[in-house]
Amino acid sequence: MCEPNVDEPLNPQAAHTIEHIGATLLRNGHYKEHIIYFGPMGCMTGFYLITRDLDFETVKNLVKEIFEAIASWNQDIPGAKKEECGNYTYMDLEKAKQSASFFINSSWEHSYHYL
Ligand SMILES: [Zn+2]
Fold first, then answer.
1. How far apart are CA 23 and CA 47, in angstroms?
2. Distance 99 CA to ligand 1 centre (A)
3. Cα 106 from Cα 99, distance rounded (Å)
4. Three-state DSSP class for 38?
5. In a domain, 69, yes or no
6. Distance from the alpha carbon of residue 56 to the mean position of ligand 1, in angstroms
7. Which of 24, 40, 44, 105 fits a disulfide with 78 by CB distance 3.0 to 4.6 angstroms?
8. pLDDT surpassing 70 at residue 114
9. What's the confidence (pLDDT) of residue 109?
10. Could you tell me the residue range of the domain that residue 46 belongs to?
């Protein structure tokens, strides 16, 4: 999502928020049968997405679609109730939206190098 050691890394609360929204969209979306894992990298520069039986072009389009949805998210954060998440107040939707927007608008072309 950002250039390693150049751009500011993700805020961890924003990454947690992106994880919740992204995982929910991926697990319930058109390609749900192909999604194995989505979660943040420890270095806070991006996410791992593990899929099966999807071509690269499909995955790239899916990632863009998911992050566009996150950038304009205006609903409750999914799975963010006390009974659903072990650190449910550790969220920052505004920073998540800013980071998703940065990824799509500023670093998307560059990020192809890391996909
Ligand atoms: Zn959580």
1. 11
2. 18
3. 10
4. strand
5. yes
6. 28
7. 24
8. no
9. 75
10. 12-109
